[in-house]
Each structure stands twice: as structure tokens, then as C-alpha cells.
């Protein structure tokens, strides 16, 4: 007796039945056919017939592929490129149907991938079948070879570096920037951005930043940010970047609230951000930030556990900073150069520990953004080079969503003639 899986009408349950002992060599038992009926085929005869048919089919395919030379250049010889067999992988942005103000947690819609038309192959991107090459099974061999080559190309393209993909560790994609100040924007791209702005509740698209500077601005720690008279060898502490370019920099701290609409909004509007992350808030959500980085944003250090660093010893501060460096390098694929100390609290030991962990710059902030307002360190407006702070938070923390915060920043910056640029391009 033995236990045998047997689904009942509800798809559940185990049952028992007598299990016959196997025949020698593991062959399962079976009934022999009635020998008085010559037209009835038993299992052995059926298996033998199937093997003969399969063998003939395989022989035909091999002989057709080997004996008949390709006609009209199809399929292409190994190493020869043929557009009819070319394959392409298109990372088309997902079609977002929910309104930015919709409730958090709404399901992400499917992507708007173009449907394959008549005579098109969804796998190869080319003809569904190669041109006819005569009778027999030779066309089948050509099709099999073409599909195999297409699959191999897709595999190589997917594995190639620089293919930033959702959830992967690819190189960040390029952002929409002008080739030179004053150059006209591509009409198709301008229309795309106009439609995205309307979708996300903006009266006009965000301004495009100029190209990144060939030489990054020389940084200096302002007197109020210095810790000791000699700052030689320590990271620069700044709240704004010394530049005349009409740009500001959006930075987002912590990593607690992971709104998928924020990723779509930033991607569709071509807005880069710098995310300063604490490990205890994102330990189970690194995929979200790998996607953010693949879209063109960057990820930086905000310590392991978000403590007041000044309350810790030098060794404790070093572990908080270096420990998060190790996590981000392992999970994101890049060792950060920037550290934002939690609460903006730091002392000389913080800067010494940051230096030991490979940190070059400690960016604080000149303005802070909320869903309904902005607060400024000096004055009542943004200035070129200002670093803007906000947090990964949602309705449970404040009266609004992450898209509401980004919308507030973009309206303010655009109204003052400023674009949002990537901080890492300047520091």
C-alpha cells in the first residue's frame, strides 16, 4: 500500500491504493493486448510507432538544414547579420491610467507594448516565417534556426552592461538635457513631456536642465558648517552648489514610504533625484531603489539606523556610515560618495568617519518641500544651486502623497525659471 496523490472534484485530498510492484528494470506494469485482435495496438507497438515518426521528422529537419543551401540569403550564415532575424528589446514606459491623486496602493497597469501585426513575430521582431524555400521540412529548419539566433541575441542584449532595467543594477539611463543652452527641443519629445505634465497635474512641463558642467564647481565649506579651524582632508559640507546654472537639486531622505507612482512620475517627467537611504527602512525594499537608479536617479548614504551621530563615539559613527556603504554597494552596485547625516547633526568625528568610509561631500539643504508648501533657509525663494530636501513619506505622515511633493517642487522651480538637475553631476 502506498499514499498516492489523487485530486478529487475540489482539487484536494490524498488517497491510498494498492501499488503494484514494478517489473524488472523499472518498467511499469501494463496489460498485454488481446492477441486474437490483430488490429489493436498495445503500448509497446504505439511507443515503437511514435519513435519511428519522431525519428523520421528529426532526420528530415537535419537533412533539410544541412543538405539544402540557404536561398535568398535566409537564414543568414553564422556571424552574418540579417535584419529579418534581428530582435530588439524595447523598454517602453508603462501606461499609467490612475490619476496622480488616486489612493496609494493602486495596482500598476500593464505596459503599452505594441501588438504584433500580421506577419510579425513577437519574439524576433521580424517576419513570423522566413521566405518559402521549397517543399518538405526545410522551412521548418530555417525557422528554428532563426528563432534560436533571435533568442540568443535577446539574451546577450539583456545581459549587456548599460541596460538599465527595472529592478536591476544597470547603468542609469540618460536624462533629457539640451545639447547646448538655447537649442530647440525635439518636437516629439516636447509633445511627450507636455502630455506627461498634463497627466501629473502640471500646467507646463518642467524646464530641462543644461548639460552637466565639463568641470564640476569647486566646493567650499561655509564658515557656519565648519567643525574646527582645519578642514583639510575632510568632506565638504554644503547646502547649495556654487553654480550660475539655472538648476536646483531634489533630494529625498530615509526610504520608508515606497510609492510606485513616484517612480512613474519621475520617469515620465525626466526628473532626477538623489535618494539618501537608511538601511533599517529599506532592508526589504531595495528593489524599489534599484528601479529608481535604473531610471537615472542616484542612491546615497543616510546611515544604517538613522541615529543622532553626534551622540555616538567615533567608532559608532564609523560603523553607521561604513555599514551602510557596504549594504548599498552590495544591493545597488555602487559605493556612495555622499552622506547626509540624520537630522543634519554632525561633528568633527562624523566628518573623520565619513572620510574613512569613502565619503567626499556632506550635502545638507537650503530648502525643504512638503505637499502644500516649501520652506527656505534664506529668503522666500529658490536660488540657482539650492539643494532641496524632502522625505519618502505618505498620507500616514502628512496630508499628501509623494507625487504631491514633487508637483510642489516642480511648480515652484519652473515658476522661478529653474530646472531640476542631478546633484551628482555637480558634486
From TrEMBL:
**InterPro entries in the record:** Glyco_hydro/deAcase_b/a-brl, NODB_dom, Polysacc_deacetylase_ArnD
Q: A Pfam family this protein belongs to? A: Polysacc_deac_1
Q: Which domain of life is it from?
A: Bacteria
Q: Where is this region: Disordered?
A: 1-52, 65-140, 155-217
Q: Which residues belong to the signal peptide in this entry?
A: none
Where is the sequence biased in composition, kind Basic and acidic residues?
Answer: 1-11, 187-197
CDD domains in UniProt: CE4_NodB_like_6s_7s (cd10917)
Q: Where is the NodB homology domain?
A: 246-427
Per UniProt, the ranges with Basic residues bias are: 27-48
User: Compositional bias (Low complexity) spans?
Assistant: 100-122
Quote the biased-composition stretches of kind Gly residues, using this chain's numbering: 164-173
Write down what this protein is called: Polysaccharide deacetylase family protein
Q: Lineage from the top down?
A: Bacteria, Bacillati, Actinomycetota, Actinomycetes, Kitasatosporales
Amino acid at each position: 500500500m502506498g499514499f498516492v496523490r489523487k485530486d478529487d472534484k475540489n482539487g484536494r485530498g490524498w488517497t491510498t491504493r494498492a501499488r503494484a510492484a514494478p517489473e524488472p528494470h523499472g518498467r511499469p506494469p501494463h496489460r498485454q493486448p488481446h492477441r486474437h485482435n490483430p488490429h489493436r495496438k498495445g503500448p509497446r507497438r504505439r511507443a515503437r510507432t511514435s519513435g519511428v515518426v519522431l525519428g523520421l521528422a528529426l532526420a528530415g529537419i537535419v537533412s533539410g538544414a544541412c543538405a539544402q543551401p540557404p536561398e535568398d540569403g535566409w537564414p543568414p550564415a553564422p556571424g552574418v547579420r540579417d535584419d529579418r532575424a534581428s530582435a530588439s528589446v524595447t523598454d517602453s514606459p508603462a501606461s499609467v491610467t490612475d490619476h496622480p491623486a488616486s489612493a496609494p496602493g493602486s495596482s500598476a497597469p500593464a505596459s503599452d507594448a505594441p501588438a504584433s501585426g500580421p506577419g510579425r513575430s513577437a519574439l524576433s521582431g521580424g517576419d513570423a516565417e522566413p521566405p518559402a524555400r521549397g517543399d518538405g521540412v526545410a522551412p521548418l529548419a530555417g525557422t528554428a534556426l532563426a528563432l534560436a539566433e533571435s533568442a540568443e541575441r535577446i539574451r546577450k542584449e539583456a545581459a549587456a552592461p548599460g541596460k538599465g532595467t527595472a529592478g536591476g543594477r544597470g547603468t542609469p539611463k540618460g536624462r533629457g538635457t539640451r545639447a547646448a543652452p538655447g537649442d530647440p527641443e525635439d518636437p516629439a519629445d516636447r509633445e511627450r513631456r507636455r502630455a506627461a505634465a498634463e497627466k501629473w497635474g502640471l500646467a507646463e512641463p518642467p524646464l530641462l536642465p543644461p548639460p552637466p558642467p565639463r568641470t564640476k564647481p569647486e566646493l567650499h565649506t561655509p564658515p557656519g558648517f565648519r567643525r574646527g579651524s582645519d578642514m583639510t582632508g575632510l568632506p565638504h559640507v554644503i547646502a547649495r552648489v556654487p553654480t550660475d546654472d539655472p538648476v536646483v537639486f531634489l533630494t529625498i531622505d530615509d526610504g520608508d514610504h515606497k510609492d510606485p507612482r513616484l517612480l512613474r512620475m519621475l520617469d515620465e517627467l525626466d526628473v532626477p533625484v538623489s535618494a539618501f537611504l537608511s538601511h533599517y527602512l529599506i532592508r526589504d525594499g531595495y528593489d524599489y531603489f534599484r528601479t529608481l537608479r535604473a531610471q537615472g536617479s542616484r542612491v546615497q548614504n543616510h546611515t544604517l539606523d538613522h541615529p543622532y551621530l553626534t551622540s555616538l563615539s567615533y567608532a559608532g559613527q564609523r560603523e553607521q556610515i561604513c555599514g551602510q556603504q557596504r549594504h548599498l554597494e552590495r544591493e545597488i552596485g555602487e559605493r556612495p560618495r555622499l552622506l547626509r547625516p540624520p537630522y543634519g547633526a554632525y561633528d568633527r568625528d562624523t566628518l573623520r568617519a565619513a572620510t574613512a568610509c569613502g565619503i567626499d561631500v556632506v550635502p545638507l539643504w537650503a530648502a525643504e518641500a512638503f505637499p502644500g508648501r516649501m520652506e527656505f533657509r534664506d529668503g522666500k525663494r529658490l536660488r540657482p544651486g539650492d539643494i532641496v530636501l524632502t522625505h519618502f513619506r505618505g498620507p500616514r505622515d502628512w496630508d499628501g502623497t509623494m507625487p504631491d511633493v514633487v508637483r510642489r517642487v516642480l511648480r515652484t522651480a519652473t515658476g522661478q525659471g529653474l530646472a531640476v538637475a542631478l546633484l551628482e553631476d555637480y558634486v
